[in-house]
Amino acid sequence: MSKDERDVFFNGRKDENGKQIDRGLIGIRGLKAAEEIRAVMERLQEARNQRK
């Protein structure tokens, strides 16, 4: 997942006027849950990189 894809996943998308198109993970689950999920994703990416 690229940095831009992660940003959209966690924060959602906005149109050119700044109006929110869809909610991201933070808007749906809350900040604390999003931080926990982000930490798990980072640990998985590190584990994947170490296996290579």
Task: Summarize this entry quickly.
By secondary structure, this protein is mainly alpha-helical. Helices cover about 65% and strands about 10% of the residues.
Question: Could you explain the architecture of this structure?
Answer:
The structure is a single chain. The chain contains three helices and two strands; from the N terminus they run αββαα. The chain is mainly α.
Please describe the topology of this protein:
Elements: H1 3-11, E1 13-14, E2 20-22, H2 25-29, H3 31-51
Antiparallel strand pairs: 1-2
Q: What percent strand?
A: 5-15%
Helical content band: 55-70%
Separate helix tally = 3
Q: What is the helix/strand order? A: HEEHH
The number of E-state strands comes to 2
Major beta-sheet overview = 2 strands, antiparallel
Cα gyration radius (Å)? 13 Å
Structural class: mainly alpha
Please, what is the average pLDDT?
88
End-to-end distance: 17 Å
Instruction: Sum up the overall morphology in one term.
Output: elongated
Uncertain ranges:
none
- Neighbour order of strands in the largest sheet: 1-2
What are the main properties of this structure?
52 residues; mainly alpha; 3 helices; 67% helix; elongated
